[in-house]
Design brief:
With 370 residues, this protein is an all-alpha fold. It has helices at 16-36, 58-75, 85-117, 131-135, 151-168, 170-188, 203-220, 227-246, 254-276, 284-291, 293-313, 322-355, and strands at 2-5, 221-224.
Length: 370
């Protein structure tokens, strides 16, 4: 990889390959859950397709690295400028909360309607103890109700708040980020045992910091490379997946998360370098799917369940081959959530983004903004 120092670029180019990577990460999670949801007793009673998609959770690890990259890449010119803090917070709020609340309301409505249709009561899952975590995505002990996958967004909120330190004071913020990374690594190696609140000791935080490093490098330096480097980075990523899923440690281990984080960072850095040299072409439809990855990620479980239930009621679930049932559920989930993303998520994000003060130094990764 060739790296040259360059003046800070105020207007960074759009990077379709990064969005395509988001789409593939979301797709991996969809495949995992579509297989896992088959284990419900009135469906198949076992995880579908011989568990071949057990690796799909690594898409979330990739998302955490990507989150650190995008926040840094988009807001790099805001670092050290405390007056940009309200605008930064508004853009972060508009990217996460509106689509999450829309999906949450949809899931609650469908779940409640299903219970009432079968003669049951509403069966509200949310108690007073769940309000902070479910409605506002504040980090707590349990997962958010109704949209369980939103646990990862709780980490996102923590990351967003932590990044504020860099806007308030670049030296103090950088120092704290370095200390944070050293602490998480030391905790993973059992050098230190004490835990910080809000799961700040979790290796997911180190994945975020890896992304921050790549984002800062992408804004400060003009990186270029060849497709050979991309092949090497992808091989490293697949090796990291094998290490995490089938290696000597338990799945979701801190060691596995660190290895996945490093490999994901390498893939992102390589994609940026190829984009700089205009050496990579990305299918428009794949990049488009990436731009609505939040909708896909948050809503897919609902539509997979609805598809399985519809096939079951129609007498087709057990009549059709398992692979066909699986494919139908994945297809319906992707189409339904992509439509929600196109006609709900992106319009809301663009409308709210337009309310924030537009500056010439704004950068964009996609037309929807981040």
């Amino acid at each position: 990889m060739h790296i040259t120092s360059a003046p800070l670029r105020q207007n960074a180019p759009k990077m379709a390959s990064i969005e395509a990577a988001r789409a593939l990460a979301a797709f991996a999670v969809v495949l995992l859950h579509a297989a896992n949801l088959m284990r419900v007793e009135h469906f198949s009673g076992h995880i579908g397709l011989n568990r071949i998609f057990d690796f799909g959770y690594v898409g979330v690890d990739f998302f955490f690295v990507l989150s650190g990259f995008i926040i840094t890449y988009v807001h790099y010119s805001d670092i050290g400028r405390v007056e940009r803090l309200p605008r930064y917070l508004w853009r972060r709020f508009s990217r996460i909360y509106p689509i999450y609340w829309a999906i949450l309301l949809l899931v609650i409505a469908v779940t409640t309607a299903a219970r009432l249709a079968t003669g049951k009561g509403p069966g509200w899952e949310i108690s007073s103890a769940d309000i902070a975590g479910t409605l506002f995505l504040l980090m707590g002990e349990g997962e958010p109700k109704y949209v369980g996958v939103a646990w990862s967004l709780q980490y996102e909120i923590v990351f967003y708040v932590a990044f504020c330190l860099l806007l308030i004071n670049v030296r103090i913020g950088t120092g704290l980020f370095i200390a944070w990374g050293i602490y998480v690594l030391a905790h993973a190696l059992d050098i230190v045992q004490f835990k910080l609140p809000l799961h700040l000791n979790n290796a997911h935080c180190l994945q975020f910091l890896f992304g921050v490093l790549v984002g800062a490098a992408a804004r400060r330096h003009f990186m270029r490379t060849s497709h050979t480097t991309l092949v090497a980075a992808l091989i490293a990523f697949f090796a990291a997946v094998i290490f995490e899923v089938y290696g000597p440690f338990d799945r979701h281990s801190e060691a596995g998360r660190i290895v996945l984080g490093l490999a994901s960072a390498a893939v992102l850095a390589t994609l940026v370098a190829l984009e700089n040299g205009k050496a990579i072409r990305t299918p428009i439809w794949l990049a488009r799917l990436g731009s609505v990855s939040y909708s896909i990620y948050l809503g897919h479980i609902l539509f997979i369940n609805l598809t399985y239930m519809a096939l079951l009621k129609a007498g087709l679930y057990h009549a059709l081959p398992e692979a066909v049932v699986f494919t139908l559920a994945v297809g319906v989930a992707l189409i339904a959530t992509a439509l929600i993303g196109i006609y709900v998520e992106l319009p809301i994000v663009n409308a709210l983004k337009s309310r924030s003060q537009h500056r010439p130094e704004d950068v964009a990764v996609t037309s929807a903004g981040h």
